Amino acid sequence: MPTYSGMWTLSQVSQAVKNLNWTGVPPSVVEYLIVAGGGGGGYSTGGGGGAGGLLQGYAGITLGSSYFVTVGGGGAGSSSTFGANGQNSVFDSTTSGAFTGRIVATGGGGGGSGQSSLTDGVAGGSGGGGGGNASSAKVGGSGVSGQGNAGGASNATKYAGGGGGGAGAVGLTVFDVSGGYAGNGGAGVASAISGTVTAYAGGGGGGSNGLGGTGGVGGGGRGGNSGQTAVAGTTNTGGGGGGPDYNATAASGGSGIVILRYPGSIQYFTGGTVAYAAGYVVHTFTSSGTLAPTTPTNFLAANVVVFFSSNTWTAPAGATQVEYLVVAGGGGGGNGNGGGGGAGGFKTATGLSVTAGTTYTVTVGAGGTGSSAASSVAGVSGGNSVFSSITSTGGGGGGTGYGAGAWNNGLSGGSGGGGGANSGTAGTASPASQGNAGAAGGPGTSPFYGSGGGGSGGAGVVGTAGNGGNGGLATASSITGSSLYYAGGGGGGSGASAGAGTSGGLGGGTATALQKGGAANGSINTTAPSSATANTGGGGAGGGYIGGANAGEGSNGGSGIVVLKWS
């Protein structure tokens, strides 16, 4: 792309934007995700902590100005009363480290205390769950409108606390069965602002002397019981802390996070961890800091072009060859203890000949659709990505575990889909050398599981009883100038008739978000899974199950990407 000065034509601007080399207009707004610290759980069969408030949107900025960013800490779990509230997170704080400012996410409410010091859940970004004993019911704390939801209530017959509210759903009330099931934490909200789909702000599970509540997806901590210690909210998710067993100390909430991004590949500010992802410059603050102006720097070299959707590319004057990365769309996950989707085919090499002035068609494959709830259909395979003579094959769809039949089998593709429960077979990597096989699904006996889809860096993993299998590993590429991971396999789902699924398989075989290659984690029971991240080729998640026709849906695979570096 030549450098222009003075008056620009619309076609010049269009081409520069397409090549991610448009430097004519610095950002005047940033997109933000702001998550406050989660609340701590309440003492002694207490309620789960509420998730930190979650805000998403756009904020105006002025180039050359600095902006303070505050990341709130999680509230402490209590050893005597209700849990402490989490701290606020702020963009454009009034002073460095201040909990006030222009855009404020409110800290999550503490869980109510159980036993003799019985209390309601505390209000917050999302409210804490009510404390539990067998003499009086306590209500959950309220959430802030637009940031979160209320916590769940206890009842007057069970030693069990309500679940903390999450950004996406209310905390659940105590389930009145023998022994007492504490309320589950409310689900959080998934966001792709970092370049990887990640869930934030899940509520903490209530504590019980029967069965502790599960933490809400998005970092909520599990509630404790007689055989299990309460779990803290996950760091930098704003998840609420779990309530504990009888006479035990509750767990603390997770700290918050602030993520800011602006389009293009040119960095105009310092602050937080800075990366280029999915066509944006991303600033991730895991602790308080400052967004401060700096000399503009392009993450991409002038001879690099990235395609997030299908288009054409005309080889510029002097170009004789390209280094390429061609990643196909990832496969969709299967429903009902389904297998994870296989990663899209991954091909990269140097020295592919091109002719200056020739226009080439670039095709970016779509991600495959996850199979819908309670359907006897495997996940849909991803679409192919193509540049010149190079074709990467879409990832295979994950098999479903719902019912018994050929639909249990993972489909073959760039990487193969994982098999669903009822002994689904693994999809193979076909053609070879673009990825790896999925793993075979579990038997048709409870607790069920689906297995992981294959990834570009490794095969899918077989699950175990009640635990979905991990997806295959992703592969890193530095063709854009930043080391980014692509084409991880989707995690398998798990569940059982009593809701006894323990864990979904890890997308991309890892809990580290930036190394998943966009792949989605498998679902537990009927928790709705997140889709794989766009423009990564990651595999979709296998769905969970809680009995009968309650077979949770699989999620969509991520679309592919094509990157060219010419010389």
Topology of this protein?
Layout: H1 10-18, E1 29-35, E2 54-60, E3 67-70, E4 89-93, E5 101-105, E6 189-191, E7 198-200, E8 257-263, E9 266-270, E10 273-277, E11 280-285, E12 289-298, E13 304-307, E14 311-314, E15 321-327, E16 346-353, E17 359-363, E18 385-387, E19 390-392, E20 448-449, E21 475-477, E22 484-486, E23 494-495, E24 561-566
Antiparallel strand pairs: 1-2, 1-8, 3-4, 3-12, 4-5, 6-7, 8-11, 9-12, 10-11, 13-24, 14-17, 15-16, 15-24, 17-18, 18-19, 20-23, 21-22
Describe the 3D structure:
The chain is mostly beta strands and 567 residues long. A hairpin with a 2-residue loop joins strand 10 and strand 11. The longest helix is centred in the N-terminal third of the chain and has 9 residues. The radius of gyration is 24 Å and the shape is flat. The N terminus is likely disordered.
Tertiary shape: flat
The helix-strand sequence is: HEEEEEEEEEEEEEEEEEEEEEEEE
First-residue to last-residue Cα separation:
13 Å
Q: Count of helical segments? A: 1
Q: What characterizes the major β-sheet?
A: 5 strands, antiparallel
Number of strands: 24
Percent of residues in helices: under 10%
**Rg (C-alpha, Å):** 24 Å
In which order are the strands of the major sheet placed? Answer: 2-1-8-11-10
Spans where pLDDT lies below 50 across 5 or more residues: 1-6, 17-21
